[in-house]
Fold these 4 entries.
Entry 1:
Amino acid sequence: MSRETISQSISIVHPISLSHGRNAEVWDTTGKRYIDFVGGIGVLNLGHCHPGVVAAIREQATKLTHYAFNAAPHTPYIELMDRLTRFIPVDYAVSGMLTNSGAEAAENALKIVRGATGRTAVIAFDGAFHGRTLATLNLNGKVAPYKQKVGVLPGPVYHLPYPSADNGVSCAEALKAMDRLFSVEIDVNDVACFIIEPVQGEAGFLALDVEFAQALRRLCDEKNILLIADEIQSGFGRTGQRFAFSRLGIEPDLILLGKSIAGGVPLGAVVGRKALMDNLPKGGLGGTYSGNPIACAAALATLDAMTDEHLQAWGSQHEEAIVGRYEAWRSQHLSPYLGRLTGVGAMRGIELTSPDGTPASQQLTQLLSLARDAGLLLMPSGKSRHIIRLLAPLTIEPAVLEEGLDILQACLQQLV
């Protein structure tokens, strides 16, 4: 099958063609089976073809496949927003809107922030990833490949170091950089919002420093700056909780949702304080496909499965298996390239470093190929593309998870 009609600017991690999948397993067009530790890059927390999601899609497809909500409201959108706002673990009144993707949620959040504050400046963080649309590109804390050759980007946007035990940047260092920013680059009173991932995904599963998160929340309250939490990858149970911001002891003003919100059907959302969500004029928010009935039905089925009991059990299972294996590998000196374990809960990364401490990017490329040949799909991440991003479905069978970790172990031993 020719791929000549597909843009060559799309980067492919695994040069295979998938045919079908079931929970944490996929098969390519040759019939080869793989254990999937990619999960559609964090989209499939409930696995491939979750029975509840599939049933909801089928049923909705016999009733109403599409209607633009801003033309005439439909029941799935209304039901989902009611359920979703009750699913968000905050104490304030929540409202929101549905979008087609996480990037579109981020774009709308920027509009909402501008309307609410009358300011335009945004502060993001090194290593961040918020999307590939024009405005979200400038939020990303990485130039290559996202910002190359596209010219001047919407702004103003400023970046700060992202403090995490996983990257060695301390709370004190980040706060010092913030002080410099406000004394040299921009008046704090001109800042509309901070946008931050509670756990960075693209950067290699770096968990935000709790002390910094709380200091940032205090600053935002003092200076009337809004705080946006990007939970597109870390949300819907990936860390063992509904959302990763809960471990930080803070409440963001706006929350970006996407990826695992609808079991693989394209959907996103921006939700937050009702006064913020209602501040733009009628017609200021919306979209033709945003909140498509089939996507809403899939999301409702997803929420049915994501009880707190399930999320806690799934998170504990993943954490115990991954951390236990990693600690064993370290004690056994499995590979000279085995670096740190990053992240929290079921959102984990394994860093590959050379004996001299530099990123082992070449070895990660080798690992991707070795694992794929052995029947395991992995996803790279990190500034230097040297961190394995583990995103197996939360619903993976324990035996399949162990089988995947066995393959990973064998491949780590083969690195040269």
Note: DSSP finds twelve helices and 17 strands in the chain.
Entry 2:
Amino acid sequence: MTDFAKLLGTAVEEARLGLAEGGIPIGAALFGPEGELLGRGHNRRVQDDDPSMHAETAAFRAAGRLRGYARTTMVTTLSPCWYCSGLVRQFGIGRVVVGEAETFHGGHEWLAQHGVEVVVLNDPECTALMREFIADRPELWFEDIGE
């Protein structure tokens, strides 16, 4: 059995980096079939002035090209938005581990309906990080989710 909490730790580190940089605290990491780290990243929309630089996108780009993604696991601190859910489907990432889906309910159920293994951890640290951010920076949060 994979230690999903350990994998999530990498994504949480990335989320905290993003927050320290003045950005949105969402982190992600892409792992290979044996649990090896392929790429990691955090939401950089604010820092890079790039609306497409979500955490999952950053981790995916950092991993570089692979022959296939079916045996990889995308770990993210927050339920993936539709954009990032599309990335998972487009490239056939086989598993998504979600830190929390309370503060934002993205496309993880849709992914599960389309054959992606989805594990939602309901991690209290991830939830607290997002709740605090949303309370402190609501305008940035609502910009990020398109509201």
Note: Residues 28 and 107 are 15 Å apart (CA to CA).
Entry 3:
Amino acid sequence: MRIADKVFAVTGAANGMGRQVVLNLARRGGHIAAVDLDEVGLAATAELARGSQTTVSTHVVNVTERDAVTELPEQVLDRHGQIDGLVNIAGVIHRFAPFTELSSDDADRIMSVNFTGTVNTCRAFLPVLLARPEANVTNMSSLSALLPFASQSLYSASKGAVKQFSESLYAELYDTNIHVVTVFPGNVDTDLTGHSGVEMLDAGAKKVRSTTPQTAGQKIVDGIARDRFRVIIGADAHILNGLSRLSAKRTTRLVAKQIKSVL
């Protein structure tokens, strides 16, 4: 998909990978409607994008609030005149704990933000995107949707739901003007845990290799430009995904042992 002169709505745009997606789209001549709950973070993202030949509007919206999301496309159209892409980056994680120690509120929050929020935005934007000659929907899943992670059962389930939903959309829309991309990042050096209100595992002296948000954002936009089916981000994601295809059971146990040793 050609990025220049296209308009993209990007959720989770106030920080981390969402911010980097905005900046990479802007560098390639795209125009962006940046969406997030964090008004201050959105303003900072817009300031960072300033100077490129692009227009960035900011929209303080909670993706779990259906009525607010339903009104969002019209707001973007009023500001930009068209919408050519939707990039769903917004997401949260829960605390690292066995399923039996997680509450119903934990489950509701994770599914509401990660899965229902993605469904809400797709439902709102798809009618507008179908009217465009070329359009894109990109949804953020996770390596944990390809390989389960102990202590992140509900998060893995929410991202598994995003994977199946997103790839089902691809199947429904493959012969239309809309291309659907699903993103599977491994460990990316963002403050996802902090923004989710949980604490990171203390791995002691062991340094966990991670991908920078800048690299992740570039790979996501590359995936949009190249109409990828899946975008897998990080050496850890590629290695573990490959191992799980050889032996899902052994790879799941390997990862589980490493996580439990930290827990």
Note: The two ends are 43 Å apart (CA to CA).
Entry 4:
Amino acid sequence: MTPEQLAPSWQAVLTSEFQKPYFHTLMQFLEQEEQQGKIILPAKDQRFNALKATPLEQVKVVILGQDPYPTAGHAHGLSFSVLPEVKPLPRSLNNIYKELKDDLGIDNKHTGYLQAWAEQGVLLLNTVLSVEQAQAGSHQKKGWETFTDAVIKAVNAQTHPVVFLLWGAHAQKKTALITHPHHLILQSAHPSPLSAKAGFFGSRPFSKINRFLTEQGRGDINWQL
């Protein structure tokens, strides 16, 4: 992956990250893992899909995930999204859809492919952009967090208002990076089956996002897939 493959607006703010020692160390780690025969997800050409699908200047919403899905054939570089053919849907995504239906009456259970959200300005960003197959969390603290913190800081620096949707304690640690008062931060429990009943269900994030974006003159998101 080279910065030239990113949208120009991301190139402008992230090219320097590709040159830093931590990023070179991260790339070496990934190469070594692959040389040992480990399967890394998602595929190399999909790891930066969030930054390809949603140029910086178009970001309206950031939905922050943690790791890619560790199941083969699921992850494709957008947080919480799976490829179109994946059935059944991951449980966290099912819970997101339950809340969306309760909130706005939209039923998306026919697909888990969230590309259409990304193309409307929803940055579907994981804080870690790779994982070893079947080993959830295996690439945490290898350098990805430094890179994705730079992404969050770049969005925070935008002069137009953005909604940051932070589900669960891991995502909520990033509030320290969101300093400009014109942004909106929405926090709740994570949609995971382990925590959804503890504050995710009933949080109504989708209507809150659209209300804020409309008030700010940025245009709402069509959440229907």
Note: The chain has a mean pLDDT of 96.
